[in-house]
Design a protein that fits this description.
7-stranded mixed sheet; 7 helices; single chain; two-stranded antiparallel ribbon; alpha+beta
């Protein structure tokens, strides 16, 4: 929708990167050594094979893996409740993807991956053990049921994430978890559950000056929708920048 409006009004924009990966679920004891100090740690890792960036995001101690509904497809996310805790903890493990040559709509790329996943999962997210992913075999519900980790998201299909995501992303996940295990021992366990896909979309960024304004036009673009932010704090900051510019002009 945003791209169509921008094209209609000849607004210049650039396509942002997206982040593609999985929701990792482990026993909550594994993450307690770090989440007792930092509730939501952000850890960035450079992968060995492709020198890509993969990071942890949105950690939920004692939380639950959930479905995230978009228009026409379903991805995964996670949350935690104040008064109801599970025996597990989860976090996103996502790899940054930039598409530059040719310039490509990264959102469409991410949506195509999500739609493939929904085709293979019959409209449901896919869950796989880390052991099965490394061995190159699909998971089965019976093998998952024999493990020590009880999935908090039940409405899933046991399958093979390697059939869904590009080899580069799968390689980043496997290598990244190996490195992360040195910081958080136990996350690289065979029984670690991986749900996918988890995709973080960012709106195309409308080209403006440093005050969030289209040059020679009294129109401002702020927040996530205009591609100027990726979280609520930054979105609020872009609003302040625009507001200050408006007030400065009114006071002249």
């Amino acid at each position: 929708m945003g791209t169509r409006i921008a094209d209609k009004h000849n607004l210049l924009y650039v396509s942002q990167s997206i982040e593609i990966g999985v929701r990792v679920e482990v026993r909550k004891e594994i993450l307690e050594s770090i989440t007792n100090t930092i509730y939501d740690p952000s850890i960035f890792i450079k992968t060995k094979t492709y020198d890509d960036e993969i990071r942890t995001f949105c950690t939920n101690p004692g939380g639950y893996v959930t479905k995230e509904n978009y228009y026409g497809y379903i991805c995964v996310n996670g949350h935690a409740l104040k008064n109801k805790k599970s025996n597990n903890s989860n976090f996103a493990f996502i790899s940054k993807v930039n598409l530059t040559e040719p310039v490509t709509n990264t959102r469409e790329y991410g949506e195509s991956i999500a739609k493939i996943a929904n085709t293979l999962g019959g409209g449901k997210p896919i869950v796989q053990t880390l052991k099965d992913l490394r061995r190159g075999r699909r998971s089965t519900q019976s093998r998952i049921n024999k493990g020590f980790i009880e999935p908090t998201l039940k409405d899933v299909v046991a399958g093979d994430l390697a059939l869904v995501m590009p080899h580069r992303i799968i390689t980043n996940i496997i290598e990244g978890l190996s490195v992360l295990d040195k910081i958080i021992p136990g996350v690289n366990n065979d029984e670690t559950l991986l749900y996918g896909p988890e995709i973080k979309f960012f709106s195309n960024e409308i080209e403006t000056d440093n005050n969030m304004k289209i040059i020679d036009e009294a129109i401002y673009f702020i927040g996530d929708g205009a591609g100027k932010a990726g979280n609520i704090v930054t979105a609020a900051a872009t609003g302040i920048v625009a507001a200050r510019d408006i007030l400065n002009k009114e006071n002249k």
